[in-house]
Amino acid sequence: MKTNPFGMDPGMMNASPMLSWWQQQWMKGANPMAQMQAAWMESLADAMKFEAQFLKAIAESGQRMTACLNDEQPSTPEEMHACYQKLVKQMTDAHQERMEQATQLSHDFRKRLWEEI
Q1: What is the DSSP string of 21-75?
Q2: Residue 10: band (very low, low, confident or very high) from pLDDT cuts 50, 70, 90
Q3: How many CB atoms lie within 10 A of CB 60?
Q4: How sure is the predictor about 79, in pLDDT bands with cuts at 50, 70 and 90?
Q5: Which of 41, 71, 75, 83 is the most buried (most CB within 10 A)?
Q6: 28 or 70, which is more confident?
Q7: Phi, psi dihedrals of residue 74, rounded to the nearest 5°
Q8: 93 is in which domain, residue-wise?
Q9: How many structural domains does the chain have?
Q10: Is residue 96 part of a domain?
Q11: What's the pLDDT at 20?
Q12: Is 23 inside any structural domain?
């Protein structure tokens, strides 16, 4: 059984290959405008997935900051600075990955459209 990342019904996750096959068969006979719309929807779904990953990184960073301030209780300004710098680096990396994925989206979208044409 597949892992459940966003609380999706397990039966629906297991049915995904069948739905994917059905969509491919349906799209063979559909008009080109519907195929272009499907390509756009796939790109939109990718963008939403990347944003969800970034929001997850923000939430995890908030948890780490809370743990750093409450659980570990830095005793010196240097420890606090090190903890803060570590969190800033993680958020910077997450944002950089987000920007790289965003720039890749336009290329992927053009590729999908070209394949549909």
Answers
A1: HHHHHHHHHS-HHHHHHHHHHHHHHHHHHHHHHHHHHHHHHHHHHHIIIIIS---
A2: low
A3: 14
A4: confident
A5: 83
A6: 70
A7: -60, 135
A8: 32-116
A9: 1
A10: yes
A11: 76
A12: no
Residue at 109 is within a domain: yes
Structure tokens belonging to residue 18:
């069948």
Residue 71 has pLDDT above 80, yes or no: no
Token pair listed for 67: 């743990």
Q: How many Å separate Cα 21 from the centre of its chain?
A: 23
Q: What are the distances in angstroms from CA 69 to CA 39, 76, 80, 94?
A: 46, 12, 8, 22
The model's pTM is: 0.58
Helix 10-29, helix 32-66: angle, nearest 10: 150
Are the beta carbons of 110 and 42 closer than 8 angstroms? no
Q: Which residue has the tokens 């969800």?
A: 52
Neighbour count for residue 112 (Cβ, 10 Å): 19
